[in-house]
Amino acid sequence: MTALATPLAPARRPWRLSPARIGIYAFLLSASLFFLMPLYIMLVTSFKSMDEIRLGNIFAFPVSVTVEPWVAAWTSACTGVSCDGIRGGFSNSMWIVIPSTIFPIMLGALNGYALSFWRPRGSQLLFGILMMGAFIPVQVMMFPLVRILASVGLFGSLPGIVVIHIIFSMPVMTLLFRNYYLTIPQELFKAARIDGGGFFRIFLQLMLPMSTPIIIVAAIMQITGVWNDYILGLVFAGRDNLPMTVQLNNVINTTTGTRLYNVNMAATILTSMVPLVVYFVSGRWFVRGIAAGAVKG
Asked: CA 234 → CA 119, 211, 249, distances in Å?
Protein backbone atom coordinates (compact mmCIF):
# COMPACT_ATOMS: atom_id res chain seq x y z
CA MET A 1 0.00 0.00 0.00
CA THR A 2 1.56 3.22 -1.14
CA ALA A 3 1.53 6.30 1.00
CA LEU A 4 -0.47 9.24 -0.22
CA ALA A 5 1.66 11.89 -1.84
CA THR A 6 1.76 15.15 0.08
CA PRO A 7 0.92 18.21 -1.99
CA LEU A 8 3.89 20.31 -2.89
CA ALA A 9 4.03 23.83 -1.51
CA PRO A 10 3.80 26.52 -4.18
CA ALA A 11 7.21 27.72 -5.23
CA ARG A 12 8.09 31.24 -4.21
CA ARG A 13 8.87 33.70 -6.91
CA PRO A 14 12.45 34.93 -6.72
CA TRP A 15 12.79 38.45 -5.34
CA ARG A 16 14.08 40.81 -8.01
CA LEU A 17 14.91 44.49 -7.87
CA SER A 18 12.94 45.54 -10.91
CA PRO A 19 12.69 49.16 -12.13
CA ALA A 20 9.05 49.30 -11.00
CA ARG A 21 9.99 48.17 -7.50
CA ILE A 22 12.83 50.68 -7.38
CA GLY A 23 10.39 53.42 -8.35
CA ILE A 24 7.91 52.37 -5.65
CA TYR A 25 10.60 52.31 -2.95
CA ALA A 26 11.96 55.66 -4.10
CA PHE A 27 8.48 57.20 -3.94
CA LEU A 28 7.78 55.78 -0.49
CA LEU A 29 11.13 56.94 0.81
CA SER A 30 10.72 60.45 -0.57
CA ALA A 31 7.16 60.68 0.78
CA SER A 32 8.34 59.55 4.22
CA LEU A 33 11.12 62.12 4.24
CA PHE A 34 8.71 64.82 3.08
CA PHE A 35 6.34 64.21 5.99
CA LEU A 36 8.98 63.43 8.65
CA MET A 37 11.29 66.36 7.90
CA PRO A 38 9.12 69.04 9.59
CA LEU A 39 8.81 66.84 12.68
CA TYR A 40 12.58 66.33 12.74
CA ILE A 41 13.22 70.08 12.46
CA MET A 42 10.75 70.78 15.26
CA LEU A 43 12.35 68.19 17.54
CA VAL A 44 15.96 69.31 17.07
CA THR A 45 15.00 72.98 17.32
CA SER A 46 13.12 72.43 20.57
CA PHE A 47 16.29 71.08 22.21
CA LYS A 48 18.54 73.96 21.07
CA SER A 49 19.31 77.22 22.78
CA MET A 50 18.46 80.49 21.03
CA ASP A 51 22.17 81.24 20.47
CA GLU A 52 22.52 77.97 18.56
CA ILE A 53 19.32 78.57 16.58
CA ARG A 54 20.62 81.96 15.41
CA LEU A 55 23.50 80.19 13.66
CA GLY A 56 20.97 79.21 11.00
CA ASN A 57 21.62 75.48 10.56
CA ILE A 58 18.15 74.11 11.20
CA PHE A 59 19.03 70.53 10.19
CA ALA A 60 21.98 70.13 12.58
CA PHE A 61 21.68 68.22 15.83
CA PRO A 62 21.90 70.39 18.96
CA VAL A 63 25.45 70.84 20.18
CA SER A 64 24.30 71.08 23.79
CA VAL A 65 20.89 69.56 24.47
CA THR A 66 18.65 71.62 26.73
CA VAL A 67 15.14 70.92 28.03
CA GLU A 68 14.55 74.48 29.18
CA PRO A 69 12.34 75.29 26.14
CA TRP A 70 10.07 72.37 27.06
CA VAL A 71 9.85 73.50 30.69
CA ALA A 72 9.16 77.08 29.59
CA ALA A 73 6.49 75.98 27.10
CA TRP A 74 4.72 73.96 29.78
CA THR A 75 5.03 76.33 32.75
CA SER A 76 5.90 79.92 31.76
CA ALA A 77 5.13 80.63 28.09
CA CYS A 78 2.83 83.60 27.61
CA THR A 79 -0.57 82.60 26.19
CA GLY A 80 -1.96 86.12 26.15
CA VAL A 81 -2.03 88.23 29.29
CA SER A 82 -1.03 85.27 31.48
CA CYS A 83 2.34 83.52 31.37
CA ASP A 84 1.51 80.17 32.91
CA GLY A 85 2.40 77.99 29.92
CA ILE A 86 0.10 75.64 28.06
CA ARG A 87 -0.52 73.27 30.97
CA GLY A 88 -3.85 74.97 31.66
CA GLY A 89 -4.89 74.41 28.06
CA PHE A 90 -3.97 70.73 28.39
CA SER A 91 -6.37 70.21 31.28
CA ASN A 92 -9.07 72.17 29.44
CA SER A 93 -8.58 70.05 26.33
CA MET A 94 -8.85 66.85 28.38
CA TRP A 95 -12.09 68.04 30.00
CA ILE A 96 -13.42 68.83 26.52
CA VAL A 97 -12.19 65.70 24.69
CA ILE A 98 -13.36 63.00 27.11
CA PRO A 99 -17.11 63.82 27.16
CA SER A 100 -16.98 64.98 23.53
CA THR A 101 -15.80 61.48 22.61
CA ILE A 102 -17.98 59.34 24.86
CA PHE A 103 -21.36 60.97 24.26
CA PRO A 104 -21.16 61.26 20.43
CA ILE A 105 -20.11 57.61 20.17
CA MET A 106 -23.00 56.51 22.40
CA LEU A 107 -25.56 58.61 20.52
CA GLY A 108 -24.09 57.73 17.10
CA ALA A 109 -24.18 54.01 17.90
CA LEU A 110 -27.78 54.28 19.08
CA ASN A 111 -28.82 56.27 15.99
CA GLY A 112 -27.02 53.91 13.62
CA TYR A 113 -28.58 50.89 15.31
CA ALA A 114 -32.08 52.36 15.08
CA LEU A 115 -31.66 53.41 11.44
CA SER A 116 -30.22 50.02 10.45
CA PHE A 117 -32.52 47.54 12.15
CA TRP A 118 -35.68 49.21 13.46
CA ARG A 119 -36.11 51.74 10.64
CA PRO A 120 -39.01 53.80 11.95
CA ARG A 121 -41.31 55.65 9.57
CA GLY A 122 -39.44 58.49 7.92
CA SER A 123 -36.04 57.14 8.94
CA GLN A 124 -34.54 57.70 5.49
CA LEU A 125 -35.72 61.31 5.51
CA LEU A 126 -34.31 61.85 8.98
CA PHE A 127 -31.02 60.29 7.94
CA GLY A 128 -30.86 62.52 4.86
CA ILE A 129 -31.52 65.64 6.94
CA LEU A 130 -28.83 64.56 9.41
CA MET A 131 -26.35 64.08 6.58
CA MET A 132 -27.15 67.50 5.18
CA GLY A 133 -25.96 68.95 8.47
CA ALA A 134 -22.52 67.47 7.86
CA PHE A 135 -22.09 69.62 4.72
CA ILE A 136 -23.22 72.95 6.20
CA PRO A 137 -20.15 75.11 6.95
CA VAL A 138 -19.42 75.73 10.60
CA GLN A 139 -19.37 79.48 10.03
CA VAL A 140 -23.00 79.45 8.90
CA MET A 141 -24.24 77.92 12.16
CA MET A 142 -21.84 79.71 14.50
CA PHE A 143 -23.84 82.87 15.20
CA PRO A 144 -27.17 81.07 15.84
CA LEU A 145 -25.43 78.64 18.17
CA VAL A 146 -23.79 81.51 20.05
CA ARG A 147 -27.21 83.10 20.59
CA ILE A 148 -28.76 79.80 21.68
CA LEU A 149 -26.00 78.95 24.15
CA ALA A 150 -26.03 82.49 25.54
CA SER A 151 -29.79 82.31 26.08
CA VAL A 152 -29.47 79.11 28.16
CA GLY A 153 -26.36 80.26 30.05
CA LEU A 154 -23.89 77.81 28.51
CA PHE A 155 -21.84 80.17 26.34
CA GLY A 156 -18.20 80.39 27.39
CA SER A 157 -18.32 77.24 29.54
CA LEU A 158 -16.96 73.71 29.28
CA PRO A 159 -20.43 72.14 29.04
CA GLY A 160 -21.22 74.58 26.23
CA ILE A 161 -18.22 73.63 24.08
CA VAL A 162 -18.92 69.92 24.77
CA VAL A 163 -22.49 70.36 23.52
CA ILE A 164 -21.18 72.07 20.38
CA HIS A 165 -18.80 69.19 19.62
CA ILE A 166 -21.60 66.69 20.17
CA ILE A 167 -23.84 68.55 17.72
CA PHE A 168 -21.21 68.79 14.99
CA SER A 169 -20.07 65.17 15.37
CA MET A 170 -23.49 63.52 15.25
CA PRO A 171 -23.79 63.22 11.42
CA VAL A 172 -20.41 61.51 10.99
CA MET A 173 -20.84 59.24 14.02
CA THR A 174 -24.31 58.19 12.86
CA LEU A 175 -23.00 57.49 9.36
CA LEU A 176 -20.14 55.35 10.65
CA PHE A 177 -22.29 53.18 12.89
CA ARG A 178 -25.15 52.90 10.40
CA ASN A 179 -22.83 51.67 7.66
CA TYR A 180 -21.20 49.25 10.08
CA TYR A 181 -24.49 47.80 11.30
CA LEU A 182 -25.68 47.35 7.72
CA THR A 183 -22.93 44.74 7.31
CA ILE A 184 -24.32 42.65 10.19
CA PRO A 185 -26.75 39.94 8.97
CA GLN A 186 -30.38 40.75 9.62
CA GLU A 187 -30.89 37.14 10.75
CA LEU A 188 -29.09 37.89 14.02
CA PHE A 189 -31.44 40.75 14.75
CA LYS A 190 -34.52 38.71 13.81
CA ALA A 191 -33.40 35.82 16.01
CA ALA A 192 -32.96 38.19 18.93
CA ARG A 193 -36.43 39.58 18.31
CA ILE A 194 -37.91 36.06 18.27
CA ASP A 195 -36.20 35.38 21.60
CA GLY A 196 -38.04 38.34 23.08
CA GLY A 197 -35.33 40.97 22.94
CA GLY A 198 -36.42 44.60 23.03
CA PHE A 199 -34.83 47.72 21.57
CA PHE A 200 -32.26 48.40 24.29
CA ARG A 201 -31.65 44.77 25.24
CA ILE A 202 -30.66 43.83 21.69
CA PHE A 203 -28.51 46.94 21.43
CA LEU A 204 -26.67 46.43 24.73
CA GLN A 205 -26.29 42.64 24.71
CA LEU A 206 -25.89 41.90 20.99
CA MET A 207 -24.98 44.88 18.83
CA LEU A 208 -22.72 46.83 21.17
CA PRO A 209 -20.37 43.90 21.94
CA MET A 210 -19.99 43.38 18.17
CA SER A 211 -19.16 47.06 17.61
CA THR A 212 -15.62 47.12 19.03
CA PRO A 213 -13.86 47.78 15.67
CA ILE A 214 -16.09 50.72 14.72
CA ILE A 215 -16.02 52.12 18.26
CA ILE A 216 -12.23 52.26 18.03
CA VAL A 217 -12.44 54.00 14.64
CA ALA A 218 -14.98 56.50 15.95
CA ALA A 219 -12.92 57.16 19.10
CA ILE A 220 -9.75 57.85 17.10
CA MET A 221 -11.57 60.19 14.74
CA GLN A 222 -13.33 62.02 17.57
CA ILE A 223 -10.30 62.37 19.83
CA THR A 224 -8.08 63.75 17.10
CA GLY A 225 -10.81 65.96 15.65
CA VAL A 226 -11.81 67.54 18.95
CA TRP A 227 -8.24 67.87 20.20
CA ASN A 228 -7.07 69.59 17.00
CA ASP A 229 -10.09 71.92 16.84
CA TYR A 230 -9.33 75.63 16.96
CA ILE A 231 -12.27 77.69 15.74
CA LEU A 232 -14.95 76.12 17.98
CA GLY A 233 -12.74 76.32 21.05
CA LEU A 234 -11.88 79.93 20.30
CA VAL A 235 -15.52 80.99 19.93
CA PHE A 236 -17.43 78.84 22.43
CA ALA A 237 -15.00 77.88 25.22
CA GLY A 238 -14.54 81.30 26.79
CA ARG A 239 -11.38 82.86 28.19
CA ASP A 240 -11.14 80.55 31.19
CA ASN A 241 -11.60 77.31 29.22
CA LEU A 242 -9.42 77.80 26.16
CA PRO A 243 -8.18 74.48 24.73
CA MET A 244 -4.54 73.77 24.05
CA THR A 245 -4.71 74.67 20.35
CA VAL A 246 -5.93 78.21 21.09
CA GLN A 247 -3.23 78.71 23.69
CA LEU A 248 -0.63 77.41 21.24
CA ASN A 249 -1.73 80.05 18.72
CA ASN A 250 -1.34 82.72 21.40
CA VAL A 251 2.16 81.47 22.23
CA ILE A 252 3.38 81.40 18.64
CA ASN A 253 1.77 84.65 17.49
CA THR A 254 2.80 86.78 20.45
CA THR A 255 4.28 90.12 19.35
CA THR A 256 6.03 91.11 22.58
CA GLY A 257 9.71 90.42 23.24
CA THR A 258 12.01 88.10 21.32
CA ARG A 259 10.43 85.27 19.35
CA LEU A 260 11.58 82.10 21.06
CA TYR A 261 11.57 79.48 18.32
CA ASN A 262 12.68 76.67 20.60
CA VAL A 263 9.80 77.33 23.01
CA ASN A 264 7.37 77.55 20.10
CA MET A 265 8.51 74.20 18.71
CA ALA A 266 8.31 72.55 22.12
CA ALA A 267 4.81 73.95 22.67
CA THR A 268 3.72 72.69 19.26
CA ILE A 269 4.99 69.16 19.94
CA LEU A 270 3.36 69.12 23.39
CA THR A 271 0.06 70.21 21.86
CA SER A 272 0.18 67.51 19.17
CA MET A 273 1.38 64.78 21.56
CA VAL A 274 -2.06 63.31 22.31
CA PRO A 275 -3.13 62.81 18.65
CA LEU A 276 0.31 61.40 17.81
CA VAL A 277 0.14 58.89 20.67
CA VAL A 278 -3.40 57.91 19.70
CA TYR A 279 -2.37 57.28 16.09
CA PHE A 280 0.78 55.36 16.97
CA VAL A 281 -0.92 53.18 19.58
CA SER A 282 -4.24 52.58 17.79
CA GLY A 283 -3.25 52.83 14.14
CA ARG A 284 -3.59 49.12 13.41
CA TRP A 285 -6.98 49.03 15.15
CA PHE A 286 -8.08 51.95 12.99
CA VAL A 287 -7.21 50.01 9.83
CA ARG A 288 -9.00 46.90 11.14
CA GLY A 289 -12.09 48.92 11.95
CA ILE A 290 -12.17 50.49 8.51
CA ALA A 291 -11.77 47.07 6.91
CA ALA A 292 -14.55 45.67 9.12
CA GLY A 293 -17.13 47.90 7.55
CA ALA A 294 -16.61 51.49 8.64
CA VAL A 295 -16.89 52.82 5.09
CA LYS A 296 -19.15 50.14 3.62
CA GLY A 297 -22.82 50.42 2.85
From this structure: 38, 34, 10
d(CA 61, CA 290): 39
Whole-model pTM over 0.70: yes
Calpha distance 15→13 (Å, rounded): 6
Q: How many residues comprise the chain? A: 297
Amino acid at site 179: N
Q: Which residues contact 272 (CB under 8 A, 6 or more apart)?
A: 228
Q: What is the pLDDT of residues 219-236, one digit of tens each?
A: 988 999 999 999 999 899
CA-nearest of 185, 183, 215, 176 to 295 is 176
Domain boundaries, the chain: 20-66, 87-254+274-294
Domain 87-254+274-294 has CATH 1.10.3720.10: yes
Q: Give me Rg for the CA atoms of the chain.
A: 25
